[in-house]
């Protein structure tokens, strides 16, 4: 499969068979130090799409992920997976999670194969004895991310991209219909990023719902069907064409230079400062220096 | 056949050899002829296995300080159990495990960091135990609680040690994969619908049980070394968990066995001898380990540069 053959969908898909959406129903999250992380947050992650979760650091992306994973309970509202509660969905192995690189202890004495096998634990008996099927699925998952030859490596002996692929293989082995990826392209070279994006597009086409939180604004329009812009609450959400606009980005991050804007299919009815920009011309990484109070953008 | 020794000296030499070899041999096997020593050697080797298995999980989870906390927190439990005529293991377990629950509660209700909470709670339990031990009339020897007394271990205490140790080994053996996943990636464990709260308390209860197991051998003050050092030593030697487990057991049993043996001849505290040996093995692994040893690392530096 080539990079060009899989393009983001421009319109929201009809409810695919066997796909699940994530409904975030008016949640608010307050941390113990009384800091409000999210308020009145409503959104629906459409089934069978790749959705980009975009927002500044401290804007609540991780908090929303934690709420979706059931790691914290909101002070108001709830998150559910279509008709299922989070706990029910987790029991059915519906939610797979690819952690950020700094959440993992890379010195832990486990091999790549061991890690991918952990994706199968939910299907095993209480003593976690892998069946022939489990082993086959683990091998297939490793093959799919191109990590078969590294299966016996201790996880710390991998490059940044290989580490990501190992954990993506675990998510694939889990066969979760919903895959959450937290900053998957941090510390990953361009080639690996492209192949990971291709894999995510394939997974979407198989009916998986993929939610990606990322700082990498440049690649959003190359693979995300939909975006959610988050800063303490939802500021914009919809298809990438509708919602990934200069105005909404400016609102999410504060002041934003025109050069960082995404390409638009049509700019007839757009505000004057929206200009078409090829995705390749976008900055690869952008870090907001300040929050909503008009902070400037820094380019790497 | 050609005899090289002069004929007159030959019988003298053989008898000298017989005397010295015999004396050395007698000295060497003397501990094995004493029933209390044989018992102590078996008990400490068994304790070595239990501690080594748990130490692999404790090192990887980063719970060394928690181990120290639980070991100190059992003191009031031991005193109360003796005063009420209950098995010491029961009192020790209840207070050891209770302390971890209190630590978890205080941490969730205050803004303190975990190490501060652990420091406050376990010293509080320990101090309470010291006061109780002197005020409750009983025939327990505080010195034995603090430093262990495996050479004088009673039949009853052996039975309690065995029950606690076998329970620990059984639980870990059956739940080893979940416990390892819990140490490695609790978020994933939760994401696939496993009960991480249960795993947390399972690991804490086997920690408390292991401390109960090792109490008579190492004593409260040194038990944390038995809970950490074998796992730490093995961790420096391998990248595979099953190898780590075997190396930890090997170094731990060797230290426990030889430590108990030497403590007889040196007339030194058994727990101290065991932990000194464990520490020496740790230092050897740290310096000479083939992969992560300091010397191995130094030797590989120029290669990496070129």
UniProtKB/TrEMBL annotation, chain A:
InterPro entries: AAA+_ATPase, ABC_transporter-like_ATP-bd, ABC_transporter-like_CS, Metal_Ion_Import_ABC, P-loop_NTPase. GO terms for molecular function: ATP binding; ATP hydrolysis activity. The keyword RNA-binding does not apply. Residues 22-257 form the ABC transporter domain. SUPFAM superfamilies: P-loop containing nucleoside triphosphate hydrolases. Pfam families: ABC_tran (PF00005). Residues 264-300 are annotated as: Disordered. The keyword Metal-binding does not apply. Belongs to the ABC transporter superfamily. This is ABC-type Mn uptake system ATPase component MntA. It comes from Phormidesmis priestleyi Ana. The gene is mntA.
């Amino acid at each position: 499969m080539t990079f060009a053959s899989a393009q983001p969908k421009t319109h929201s898909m009809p409810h695919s068979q066997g796909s699940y959406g994530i409904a975030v129903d008016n949640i608010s999250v307050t941390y113990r130090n009384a800091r409000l992380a999210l308020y009145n947050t409503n959104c629906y992650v459409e089934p069978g799409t790749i959705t980009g979760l975009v927002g500044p650091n401290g804007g609540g992306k991780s908090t929303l992920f934690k709420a979706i994973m059931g790691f914290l309970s909101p002070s108001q509202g709830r998150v559910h997976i279509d008709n299922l509660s989070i706990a029910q969905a987790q029991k059915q192995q519906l939610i797979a999670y690819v952690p950020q690189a700094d959440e993992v202890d890379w010195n832990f004495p486990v091999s790549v194969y061991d890690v991918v096998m952990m994706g199968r634990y939910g299907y095993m008996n209480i003593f976690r004895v892998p069946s022939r099927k489990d082993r086959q699925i683990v091998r297939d998952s490793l093959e799919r991310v191109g990590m078969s030859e590294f299966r016996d490596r201790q996880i710390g002996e991998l490059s940044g991209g290989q580490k990501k692929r190992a954990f993506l293989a675990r998510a694939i082995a889990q066969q979760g219909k919903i895959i959450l990826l937290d900053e998957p392209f941090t510390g990953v070279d361009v080639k690996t990023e492209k192949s990971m994006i291709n894999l995510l597009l394939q997974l979407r086409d198989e009916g998986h719902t993929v939610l990606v939180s990322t700082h990498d604004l440049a690649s959003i329009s190359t693979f995300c069907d939909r975006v959610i812009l988050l800063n303490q609450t939802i500021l914009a959400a919809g298809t990438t064409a509708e919602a990934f606009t200069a105005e909404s980005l400016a609102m999410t991050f504060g002041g934003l230079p025109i050069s960082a804007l995404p390409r638009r299919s049509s700019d007839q009815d757009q505000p004057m400062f929206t200009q078409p920009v090829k995705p390749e011309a976008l900055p690869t990484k952008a870090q907001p220096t300040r929050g909503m109070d008009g902070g400037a953008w820094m380019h790497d | 056949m050609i005899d090289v020794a002069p004929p007159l000296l030959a019988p003298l030499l053989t008898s000298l050899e017989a005397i010295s070899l015999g004396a050395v041999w007698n000295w060497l096997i003397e501990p094995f002829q004493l029933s209390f020593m044989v018992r102590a050697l078996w008990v400490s080797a068994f304790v070595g296995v239990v501690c080594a298995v748990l130490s692999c999980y404790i090192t990887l989870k980063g719970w060394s300080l928690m181990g120290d906390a639980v070991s100190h927190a059992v003191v009031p439990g031991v005193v109360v159990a003796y005063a009420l005529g209950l098995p010491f293991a029961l009192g020790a377990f209840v207070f050891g495990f209770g302390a971890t629950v209190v630590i978890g509660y205080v941490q969730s209700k205050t803004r303190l960091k975990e190490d501060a909470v652990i420091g406050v709670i376990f010293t509080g339990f320990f101090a309470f135990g010291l006061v109780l031990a002197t005020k409750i009339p009983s025939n327990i020897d505080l010195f034995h609680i603090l430093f262990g007394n495996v050479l004088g271990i009673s039949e009853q205490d052996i039975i309690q040690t065995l029950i606690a140790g076998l329970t620990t080994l059984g639980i870990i053996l059956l739940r080893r994969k979940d416990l390892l996943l819990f140490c490695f990636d609790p978020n994933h464990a939760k994401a696939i619908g496993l009960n991480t709260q249960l795993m947390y308390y399972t690991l804490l209860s086997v920690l408390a049980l292991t401390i109960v197991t090792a109490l008579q051998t190492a004593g409260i003050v040194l038990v944390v070394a038995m809970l950490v050092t074998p796992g730490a030593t093995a961790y420096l030697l391998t990248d595979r968990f099953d190898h780590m487990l075997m190396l930890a057991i090997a170094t731990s049993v060797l230290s426990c066995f030889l430590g108990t043996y030497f403590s007889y001849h040196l007339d030194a505290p058994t727990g101290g001898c065991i932990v000194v040996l464990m520490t020496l093995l740790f230092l050897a692994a740290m310096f000479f380990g083939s992969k992560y040893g300091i010397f191995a690392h130094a030797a590989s530096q120029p290669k990496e540069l070129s």
